[in-house]
Specification:
The protein is an alpha+beta fold. It has 2 domains: 4-66 and 337-368, no CATH class; 85-243 and 286-317, no CATH class. The protein contains 10 helices and 13 strands. A hairpin with a 5-residue loop joins β4 and β5. α3 (72-83) runs antiparallel to α10 (321-339) and α5 runs antiparallel to α6 (184-202). The longest helix has 20 residues, at 110-129. Mean pLDDT is 87; it is low at 363-371.
Amino acid sequence: MLSVADIFRSHAAAYLARFGARVPPSHRRAIADIVACRTEAMGGVLLACDDCGRHRTVLHSCRNRACPQCHAQQTVRWVAARAAELLPVTFHHVIFTVPWQLRQVARRHQRAVLGALMRAAAESLQTLAGDPRFGGGRLAVLAVLHTWSATLLWHPHVHCLVPGLVVRADRTWRRTHRGFLVPVGALSRIVAAKFARLVRRELPDVRLPEALFDRPWNVYTRPCFEGPANVLRYLAQYVFRGPMDNRRILGIDHGRYVLQYRDNDTRRLDTVRLEPHEFMRRYLQHTLPRGLHRVRYFGWWGPSCRPTLRGLQLQLGSGLAELTETLAVQARQQQAAAAAACCPYCGSNRSHFVGRRLRDRPPPSCSRDPP
């Protein structure tokens, strides 16, 4: 089966030769890491089977957040950690989408514009939650930035998971209506105004179309009556990894790679065929600049509000105890499987460490990991 790494190994040299200095440093590092991931270039560890005595090498991963074959354990641990922070309330899934007229501005100035989008989304929710008609307090917001469409086109938007609970200044709390969080019409206008203010402050020399901020933006919200587990699992797929996984690559057709995707309008599976360099360009454009966080926490889900969260959990109880325990078990199982992979010769899962295989490049930096 073809993988993203196979495509990069076949065409990376020609891609870099074609585009040269136009390739940003973050893209160059992603190409180098994906090409080297789980190869001799990354080094590895030498293990000996306790039963048959034969040796095998387990190669290291690149740990780049653009690589689709890394971070499996981190993904499970992240979902388990978020599940432990849930409360027994109705959750809401809110999506803020940048108008198509601003997409190129967002692509040229990713650090400023994408950061402003995430902040404006959270502030607009907090502004309406502060109205006494909608709770008169603060919400908790988990915001995850996505920049791709189903066909890997540039399509920046923010997914927000919001519990239906408002915490007031006097530390009292109030549940929101089970099927209603805040008015979407007002939310779409407020986020446009806040986004414009933040971007103009960060990029005073960039001219933005004024008409875009006089109309409502595309904001989607729905209550998660089935619980937040599905949204968490969906967001976790892209928190630590690239915009697609290897299973979507169906093969090659006359020199073009065939990718499978689900059409948002018909909800049916379809395919798109991309030239090698076009595939790499679409894939790499979603590699964020170093230091730009894809995941952010606002309100009483923020790092400085842990006492508030723990107090709410003591009063209301944990959210999904069964889900939390299930995910914790999965995390432990994955860790155990990674620590004791089966021997390819006899199938035994008992082995011991013998030594390390040297790499011919520096080890990956932990600072490149997403938050």
